[in-house]
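hey so i finally got around to running the thing on that chain from the lab meeting. sorry it took forever, my laptop kept dying and i had to restart like 3 times. anyway pasting the input first so we r on the same page abt which one it is
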Amino acid sequence: MSRKPVHLAVYDTYADWETGHATAYLARAGYEIRTVGPSREPVDSIGGLRVQPADALDDVRPEDSSLLILPGADLWDTSAQLAPFARKAREFLAAGVPVAAICGATAGLAREGLLDDRAHTSAISFYLAATEYKGGSRYVDADAVTDRGLITAGPTEPVAFAREILGLLGVYEGEVLDAWYRLFHDSDATAYAVLEGAR
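ok and heres what got predicted. didnt touch it at all, straight out
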């Protein structure tokens, strides 16, 4: 079955640990993972990993994608350099293509107004409140939240973030998705048999 690629945003200071569970299991399910940078110039993660983006942000179109993933980065809170990625997220959501944002990327989406009318989460409510967004009443104190094609999660929840992504794209469902989460989040060895049985 042919699937459209998943686009993973990469930019200087991006949090390289936040998306690994999601991208690894999306790739295992047959999705091509394409990195998207501000341009095609190399970027450096917060952990010092240098990445050569496959695509420049301006060249990425929602109709050519299954999902846009936005990891956290120091730059979300220290400058407006990443605002174009939040605007791209608006374009994706308007086209009915899902977006997944974790950590500081949730603040970028809050500044863009994308959390004003959707249930969402982040690191903590007052972190988003500092953006002066209008969606404070829609904040949910949860590990990850999905609402109308938008997934949000806080920085300590990369496994829950991946769970929501894998569920939204139908990679795993029901008890298999629950088992995947229990295995990687809770180290529940009994979940392994459920995953093996689903292969």
